[in-house]
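User: Fold this; C-alpha cells only.

Assistant: Input:
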Amino acid sequence: MRMPARFVWLGVVVMLGTSGCPRQRDSAHADAGSDPASATTTDAARPTAEVRIDGARMLELVAALADDELGGRFTFAEADIGRAADMLGKAYREGGLAPVGKAYRVDYPITTGVKETAPSSISIARAGTSQAVPATAFVVRPNSASGTATGEVVFVGYAARSRTEGDAKPAYDDLDGIDVKGKVALVLLETPARPDGQAMHEALRARAREFERSTEAARAKKDAAALSRAYVAMRKDIAKIVAPWMRGKPLPKSFVAPPTDPLAAVDVRSIAEALIDANDALPGPKFDPRFGRLRHKLTRLAEAGAVAVIVVEGPRSFVDAKARAADVLPTLDSGRPGIEPAAIPVVQMRWHDADALLRIGKRKLSAVQAEIDRKLVPRSAVLTGTTATVTVALQATSVAAPNVLAQIEGGDRKHEIVVIGAHFDHLGREGTGQCHADPGDVEKDGVCNGADDNASGSAMVVEVARALAAAGVKPRRTLVFANFSGEEIGLHGSKALADSPPAVAPFAGGKVVAMVNLDMVGRLDERGLAIGGLGSSPGWLPLLDAVGTHGLGVLYERAITTRSDHASFYRKNVPVLFFFTHLHPDYHRPGDESAGISKGGMTKIAALVADLVHRLGDGADVPFALPANPDEGLVGALPGTNPATIEKRVGLAEPKPEPAAATP
C-alpha cells in the first residue's frame, strides 16, 4: 500500500522508525496457535456451502513471496518482480485457472525516466528586452511535458488551498481571484510555513544514525547516565531541525524532555507524529499534505489554463541555512520512477536567480515568500509587463512491468467482468529500491519483504480463485483475478488494466462492473477488518449485510482512499471495495515479514471475500454512484480515519477518544 496522506508532507516518515532497542512484535501474530482468529476458524473455512479456503496453502504463498530471495519485489528489479510473477502464474495454473490471453503474465509499459533530446531554455522579456536565463540557473523537471510556451508571468504562491469542512470556502487559496489562463505560472514548492519535508526526513534519519553510532558502547554497558546525556543532546538537535515547522512558536516540552528510560529506543516516528500534531494545533489555515506535492500543483495550474510552470524552492523552504545558501537544483534523473508527465512544460529555477530576474510588484520572490509564511495570506499577482518563454524537449524511457491475470469465464453475462485484485510489488532492497532500514530495525538485512504489504493480498486473491475453481463455481459474470505491480510507485499496474486492458476476452467487448481490492489483509488484530468504498455503490451495503461478517469484527467505510489499486478503477466509474487490516509499526520497513502474518485472520477474511465474489459473479447488483459529498469520494485518508464517513462497526468496540494534540 502507498503511504497514507498523514505522513506525506514529512517525506517518507513511515520509514523513520526507532533507534536502539528492538521493537516488540505482537505476540498475537507469532503463530496460528495464538492467533486472535484461530480459535473459531479452520484452514478450510466455508464462504459458501461448496467453497473451502485452505489457510495453510495461502500462508505458504505469502512466505514464498516475502522470502529474502525475492528481494522485496521492487517493480524495476526485473529478476525479483519477474520471479514473483512466475510464482503467481504457477499457482493459478496449478489451481486450474485459465489465463487472460495466452499467458498469465501480461506486461504493460512503465516510465523509468526521461532524457533531453535538445537543450531546454527559458527567456524573460521585460520592457521590450529579452534575457536568456543561464543554463546553470534552472533544470527541467522530470514530469515536464515537451513543447514551447510563451505567456505573461503570474506568481501563484504555493498554488495551495487550505482544508475545508463540507462546502465551506477555503480560508487560504493561492488561485482564488487570479487568472492563469494562457500565462506562465511562477510557483513555490511545499506549502505555506512548512519547509521541505523530505529534507527534514533525511536530517532526522541522519541524526538518529549518529546517535546510534555514538551510543553503541554505552548501550552495551547499559550506562544509563551516558545514554541520558546523549539522548537529551539528540533531542535538542531534533528540536532545531523541526523548529521551522512551528512558525516561531515554542515546541512542546516532549521534544527536549529527557527519556524516562535512557535504555529505551529513540522512536523518531513518534517524534514526527508529535510534530504533525503540534503543527496542526497552530492557529491559521490547515493544509492537506497533497497540496505540497508538485504533481498536485501542476494539475491545478494546467486545469486552470496555465501554459507552463516555473518552479522555485523558496529560501524559507530549505531545512537549514547551509542548504538555503547552496540552493542546489534537482537533476533530471532524480525523479521518481514511474512518474507521469504533466500536461505543460515545467522547469525549476534557483531562488537566487529568481530573485535577480523577477519582481512581484517591486519585491523579490524571497521577500514575498517570507510575508506569505508570516501572515498566511496569499500574495498571488501578475508580473505586469513580464513574459516568459519556456522550451522543453524530453523523451521518456520505459520498461515492461508485469501484471498477472487469471479468469473464471462467465456464463450468460460473461461480458460483465468482476475484478478481484491485489498488488504484489513492494519496496525492494536498500540501495536498489525504496527500502530503508533505520538504525533501530531488528531486521538489518536491507530487504523490505512486504509480507503484509502486499504478499497477503496477493496470496488471498490466488486462494479465493483456486477455492472457487475447485468448487466448480460457474459464475454468470466473468471473474478476473489480478495481481498488479507498480502500486508502490503510483498504482501503475492497476491503472494499466483499468485504462488499457488487453485486447482479448473477456476485456475485448467486455466491461468491468465491479472491483474488489485486497491490500494489507494479513495482520488481523483487535481493530478488525476495514472495508472501504461503500459510497461507490448503493448496492454494496445490502450485499455485505447479506454476506455477513464471517465471525470478524468489521468497520464499514463509505469513502474511497486514493492509496491503493481500487482507485484506478473508481476513476473509471467502477464501483469498488477495499479490504484492509490497518497499518502497523512494520509498515514499509524490513520487519514486515511472514512471521507476523495472522493465518487464522487471513482465512476468515478470504472466506468472506470468496462469499462476496461468488455473489458478485452470480449477478449481484452494484450500480456505480457518485459521492454524496467530497469526504465520501477519493480521499487521502485510510478507512476509519474520518468518523463522518464510517457507515457502522459490527463486532467492534467503539474507539476511545484520542487525547488532544500537544499544544506549544
